[in-house]
Amino acid sequence: MPTHPTRFGRFSAVFIMTSMLSTLLAAPVYVGTSVNAIQLADFNSASGRFGLPRPVADLSKATFLARSADGKFLYSVADNEGGTLHAFSVAADGGLSKLNSRTSGGKGPCDIALSPDEKLVAAANYSGGSVVVYHRAEDGSLGEQAAFFQHTHAAKAHANRQGAAHAHGTTWSPDGRLLLVPDLGGDRVYIYARDAANGTVAVNPAQAWLEMAPAAGPRHAQFSPDGRHLYIINELDNTLAVAAYDAAVGTLKLIEAVSTLPAGGFAGKTTTAEVAVHPNGRTVYGSNRGHDTLAVFARDTATGRLTLTANVPVPAHPRHFALSPDARWLLVAGRDADRVDVFAVDADTGGLTPTGEGLATPKPMCVRF
Fold this sequence. Notes:
Number of strands: 30
Largest sheet: 5 strands, antiparallel
Mean pLDDT: 94
Shape: globular
Low-confidence stretches: 13-23
């Protein structure tokens, strides 16, 4: 006589399958903070919800993070005395084990990035006004120093913020040939060229820097997915600049700079922070701190030009934000709100809708999948 599964058995099977699916859909999200630890929380890509956060590295002022493409290594700056960079291996449960540390070569390290082939790690020092590049060892640790550049030019167009060089970002070109370093104090995006054959990095002979508008204060930058345009968020004048990239020659040319604020402007004090381009290349985002919004721009994929379509309210002082790997969600780190909020992303328009979901964590500065 054939047997039939009981109601309890069917329920158990469904529960187990649901749990397994939930586990498969959970992705670890690391949160760099301005306090005393790197936080980790699982993020469910189906529901857009976070699990409970937990500290995974006791590291003071580990603000900005970078992760290897295979997810097995994490790198962090630490804005402590003197400035340091740290390498971690990532366990199966997302936990971190420290591999080693290196000096950042200057005070106030504020950004870190892996080259596309992940053989180099670059970091910018805000207070030091410099950029350092390290070789990445086979075991994922930080190897020998490949280059160090001290910026000396100060634009002095802004009375309070441009009395000295302030390197603020590190962005590699998609082909890995160039390292772009926005310098807020100098109103320049410095351009360094990499020799892949010998692993050296030097001043780009075709163009040493891209000059920005006076008192713009370039902070961070990101390339479009097609590699044809670089988008530079300017902290001081609240603009997003568009530059055309000539990959054959290795040069940049400014096309335009558009305001990140609505047409009516904003009477209060506000500065920008982060920029990101949607993987489909049709939408660009920039964050406003003070105005506390994400500016959403439609991108003309042919010309690279931008049109502001919305300013979406986000948690206070949006220092950093990141799209999920499937681009269905956008996570915003609101430093002064002590929260990372979740927004649903419209696949066609790039529009953002608050989900009401989020993660409570002290002083979030960077979110990294």
